[in-house]
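Page header: ASSEMBLY MODEL / six components / 860 residues total.
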Amino acid sequence: MSPAAPDRRSQRLGHILACAARVFREKGYDGASVRDISRASGVSLSSLYYYCESKQKLLYLIAVGSFRTILERLESRLRGLEHPVEKLRMLVFNHLEYFLLHPDEMKVLVREEEALRGRYRKEVAEVKRQYFARTVQIFEELAHLTPLRETDARVAVLALFGMMNWTCTWYRPGRDPGPQELADRFVAIFLQGVLRDPAAAGLQPELEEVGAGDR
Amino acid sequence: MSPAAPDRRSQRLGHILACAARVFREKGYDGASVRDISRASGVSLSSLYYYCESKQKLLYLIAVGSFRTILERLESRLRGLEHPVEKLRMLVFNHLEYFLLHPDEMKVLVREEEALRGRYRKEVAEVKRQYFARTVQIFEELAHLTPLRETDARVAVLALFGMMNWTCTWYRPGRDPGPQELADRFVAIFLQGVLRDPAAAGLQPELEEVGAGDR
Amino acid sequence: MSPAAPDRRSQRLGHILACAARVFREKGYDGASVRDISRASGVSLSSLYYYCESKQKLLYLIAVGSFRTILERLESRLRGLEHPVEKLRMLVFNHLEYFLLHPDEMKVLVREEEALRGRYRKEVAEVKRQYFARTVQIFEELAHLTPLRETDARVAVLALFGMMNWTCTWYRPGRDPGPQELADRFVAIFLQGVLRDPAAAGLQPELEEVGAGDR
Amino acid sequence: MSPAAPDRRSQRLGHILACAARVFREKGYDGASVRDISRASGVSLSSLYYYCESKQKLLYLIAVGSFRTILERLESRLRGLEHPVEKLRMLVFNHLEYFLLHPDEMKVLVREEEALRGRYRKEVAEVKRQYFARTVQIFEELAHLTPLRETDARVAVLALFGMMNWTCTWYRPGRDPGPQELADRFVAIFLQGVLRDPAAAGLQPELEEVGAGDR
DNA sequence: TATGAATGAGTGTTCATTCAT
DNA sequence: TATGAATGAACACTCATTCAT
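Prediction written out in full:
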């Protein structure tokens, strides 16, 4: 009725979702009870249901909200960038920045993929698919620009996602590098590997490699 | 008395653990009930407790057993290898082979790190720590042999583990490459990156990099 | 909001506690199941837990409530009494009256001393200790007033408690005397014994005893 | 077959019963599991059932055995005693001596009266009844000899049993008097009360009491 | 908008007991 | 004489959710 009403409502829901994310991170989706979330948020059990109809939907809203935010920021930041390498760098930075700023949501996104059921699951999977597809697209722009060692985009991109997503199991703020530096390191490994001089390490030189591509 | 007696028992426990791993993979540790495991294994609820005293211990035995197996096979396979690159390749192959052959255990190992409590948790963490330390050791042998782009062993090794462990979320046998090929690809990315010609992609040439290594 | 609300809750809890006391008396604490109490009270199992968080706490509330009531009534009834003999009589009456009016709680108090654990146990033990100390105090007032045969207050008071508490194993309303008469009899035995003429029964005469008191 | 066989058997059963008594004392009948008894006795669960067919029977054997022993010793010790006061003293000593020497059995006897069911319950109740009747008989011999203040034998004897049985809740060897002294004190209280000079305490003199008996 | 009260189904675990060997 | 293996029933307790107010 009053124009402030819907804001109040979504603010309160936002608070609940943030607390739910924390609880889900601490105990896992199945290990967390709605009562835990009620306690953590200071919202009574029944009020909680007034704002969100089920535990599943809490997880759904957290997941979908996070992925949408990541995707939107990515598209906005990608605007104006031309070189696929720069785009890739931006994607990794965008991903890690969100993860390191929202460690609760990050862990939930990464771990609770299969906790969602039915319609919720499909919708989240669809947003994820879009995000993955966007990454593959950038990878293939790169492939068109310069020859790649790894030509299976699926495997390559999933390796990159592995590096990024696994951070949620080990990253410790303060000890580990910030999002920009971490992104640079991951991109460097992904594009050029850890060796400065592969030949010196006994690996085939670049040119032979290219030649070997003939077989 | 009969020589088969102890075998019977451990065989039966082995069967239960295999079923438990499958159920844990399907539903997650917290989402799975001991009754689910009882049903899946065909062992009555109370008999199940005759073989294993708690749900926690089921998870513990799965985790510790898997890590021990991986570590033992690794050490045995490492014997005779000299070059750090070969050692690394073997480590990645050993890891992926176990994971692809035991997808249930793999997923449990990767996801349920924090489901264990108390003594069980500590013991599993210790075996993991050993495994991680072994990998860092190989990485540093490599660093002594040839200059590396990434000098932070922790970040580099965790990036590699990210690639490997993330497979449990996407790997589909039949569609995706087998353990040997996948290992080769991951090692190639890790050591040399996906680019065949970094300079052509606008990245700094090798030699300057090498020069930078003088500081 | 409505003034009746908190009353409703405590009334319902009171009903549950009364039923729990009956069930505990009939089956013992360990022999009784929470389902038995649920059935006996007509309160569903989960509602029961809504009112009281654990079986232990049910017992605790019964025990602490009873002891507090007994103690409060005792102090109120003791006010105005001067002579230790009258005080003792009142204590025994107060004790037996409560027991005979609340036979379920009585039996639980007497039998389930050790069923409680941790904090609950300590708190109940503390109230009991106070009650015992109060009785010893009255006994010692008596000892100051007139020479006693039994000078070990601990043993004497415990003998008296034995008489009183043991009633819970044999008392049958209707057949046995009411609280006032029973109290009189116990006090008479405790103070003067069952013999009217100890000398005639071959026991040492009072006067020699009194003389013996000189040593 | 061999003559020693039955002895072995009953020795082993005796060991089991002693351990069972200890476990029942520590945890209560319902709180104790047959596994607890198996562990405490070092006898495997199935062997335990070979020696005694049920948990109920364990309790039954403990109870019946104890009561029989107490009764037999009592009769043997009573032989030769003439004066009812001496008989009473012997009964109380006999009772306390057994209790203090067998604290486990004592506590079980006192607390687990109602844990037994059916035939077992009846049989134990019968032995108890005999024991009670024997005490009443002695009490009435005393009543014939000398006038008593308390003429209701039931209440008087139950008061005495209360003193004796309640010891199981407070007696601490070392701190509290041994069986003979404790028996003397209890008998003194029971026969003559704690007061040396009831008149001085404001209680009616003996003779008036006797006179009052006329009404 | 908010919440106290309520519940049926389910949780991990233990029980006394039996049976094949 | 002895015991490993097995089980159905029960245990105390928690769950996500609903509903009347």
